[in-house]
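Bench notes, afternoon.
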Amino acid sequence: PALAQEPIVVELFTSEGCSSCPPADALLVDFTHQRMAGNAELILLGEHVEYWNSPGWTDRFSAPVFTQRQSDYVQELHLATAYTPQIVIDGHLQGVGNDAAAVRRMIAQASTSPKPSSVSLRFVSPEKLQVNVEDSSHGRQRVLFAVTEDDLTTNVRGGENGGRVLKHGAVVRELKPLGDTSSGKFEATVNVPAKSDWKKQNLRAVVVVQNPSSGLILGAASIPYLAGEP
């Protein structure tokens, strides 16, 4: 089973229609190749928002769930407005996603705070993932499930990035709530989705424990789909 010692959740809100986003996308791709920062495991989520979509270009990875998730952060973090590229770390540190030095400083800062929830993930079959959460914080915490895909490329044919080839890592293909912790525990067996155009060797299942009112991330883990293969 995959059990991260000190997971840090790095969420990038981005869009193929935004000309300042490619350096942030490249930074996320860099992180997918190392996945570690000191003693911390990076749990990476690339979330493509819709508000840059135009008749010139529609980001095929964009979806309402990501636009809404960023909007929730805008409220929880008391920001004036949503913007891209935005990186949110552990649900409470945020900054411009194309400032690599600032992002690395935030990751270093986050790594000094131990998380109260431990998440363990184990494939019981290639399509079924056992999720166990032990949460030592108080109250009901939300448990979220995501599927991410690495090594994606788009030839952008219009909009602000028209003519560019963009590379993406940790693109969130699916994001949904699994439920809430009860008495400090959560257990579920999840059917892991795999669509025909997703490349299994590049997929990871991610589980995040998050406070529903503050947005603070209390625990997380990720596991490659190939860990479920015989």
